[in-house]
From TrEMBL:
Listed Gene3D superfamilies: 1.20.1280.50, Ribonuclease Inhibitor (3.80.10.10)
Taxon lineage: Eukaryota, Fungi, Dikarya, Basidiomycota, Agaricomycotina
Signal peptide location: none
Name recorded for this polypeptide: F-box domain-containing protein
Stretches for region Disordered: 574-595
PANTHER family named among the record's database cross-references: F-BOX AND LEUCINE-RICH REPEAT PROTEIN 6 (PTHR38926:SF5), F-BOX DOMAIN CONTAINING PROTEIN, EXPRESSED (PTHR38926)
Amino acid sequence: MSLDCPKHTKNSNLSLRSKRCSESSTFRPTFGNRGKEPFVSIEKDTRKRDLFAALSGLAESPPRFFPFVTEIRCGFDPTEYDEAAGLSRVELRSRLTELDALIASLTLKRQSLQAASDAIIYPVLSLPLEITAEIFVRCLPAATYVSPSISDAPLLLTQVCHQWREIALGTPTLWQSLAFKDQDVSTKLLTLWLSRSGVLPISLSVTCWDKLRTGALFAAALQFVDRWCDMKFGLPLSSFSKLDLRNEPLPNLRTLRLDYVSQSSDDIVSDIVSISHAVALREAYVTTHPEVIVDLPWAQLTALTLKKGVELHAALTLLETCTNLVTLDISTADDSIASSMLVTMDSVKTLTCNLGSSEPDSSCILDHVILPNLTRLSVQNLSHPRHAPTLKNFIHRSACSFQFFAASFSRDMTADTFLECLRVLPDSISELELTSPRGEFTRGIFSTLAPDTVLPRLRTLRLHGRGVLSDDEYEDLVDMVQVRRARSPPSLDLVSLHLWLFSNHPRMMPSNLRIVQLKALTSRFSGLKIKFLLSKRVPYGRSTHVVLDNTDSGEILLVCLVDVTKARRTDIPCTDTSTQRESGRNAGAGCGTTC
């Protein structure tokens, strides 16, 4: 038989497949040798058996085929991974269960603490609402107009708790006053703030630099025009025409203040401020441009202040219509007026005025008024020798015996001029108050006041100055007090010294000897009160040091200064702990024995 025979070839292929697929037979059948013994190979049979066992394992577990292939290819054992993942899931679920239990426990604890907190009744919250509201009103700043600051009442009170907020918002008295500046807040605040005041009279200060905003501000303020009580307007020029309220009833208006805050070169001033129906108006403060026409019910005013922008002749004409004035403050002075006009005002009791410049032809209000019932006179810019004749002529013309005299000096003031002015004052003066921008003016004051012929009825002396006093001046002060207290009857019950210092000075404090002498005067003369203060400007305001004060509840000695390194440490002894506490409040520091 030829090997190329198709039948023979087919049988051969079958023989090969039989050899590969046989499970246990070790025989290798050959069609060409049927009668012979089968050929057996132990080594080959072993390999076949191992391979067949492996293939049988794959057939019995098909799901493990792909992991098996992966294991073969990369050496990764998925069994270990599955075991680790399962263990991690168990731990996470266990931790989540623990956290859920902890959250539940903390929630219960929080609820318990909240319930305990809610059960606490604070004494201040148990007060009647009326008392709490009155306390809130007493917390308002002392200023006439309250600034909308979150650090001050009433806004501060609304941030404490819900109950206080409700009480504050429901107390109209807290919202009666507002200082509004257009650069700080919006117009909506003005409306909201004043709407909380209910039907009470309001005090409103409006300061606006932007002429474009004045219309919106007035529109908001006019909503409450029937409740205007104390009104202050600081406006740019050409904006006062919005105050033409001649046909508007203002039943509660008592005080009106007008002031212009800005002026541009293109302003055309033709404003008219007119108020006719304000039956309660009693006080007016006017500081405007001369071209602004102000028409008020002058006859019913009891207090009037005329500052810059009002010419002296116009002021005199206006004063003729003010028949009920009690208090007059006028700083108008004119260097060119030649009028001999005199205005008699019987009702004026308090006058504050400017004496004008040192020009020979300068004129002030004292040259043109007669005030027979004057009790208090305050003059500013006292410096020139011609001011003494001005005072003398006014006093002689008015035949007044006022009891209070205050004077502020300019830098040109001399001791001789001051002495001449004191000599023309009436003997009826019991209070003398002197203010100077520098300390040199005090030289000669105390020695001038010592004689019996100068202000014999003087009971109170107040001195406000800048700078320091020399040791000789302190000696003159002690001598003056001794002389006046030794009189029969004694005079000078109160001596008040308030000195302003620009900085710490090596001699800012009086010597220990002078302090002892002043203290001895208060012990020797019953009823004598001495108040001695030193003030100094600091970055956030001023610092006031009490040197000696027995006007209230006892004597206080200053023992500390703000900067003790620049002061004499042996000036003032520390006497007791109460002194140290007081000095700590005033100077911001404490010491052991000596400062």
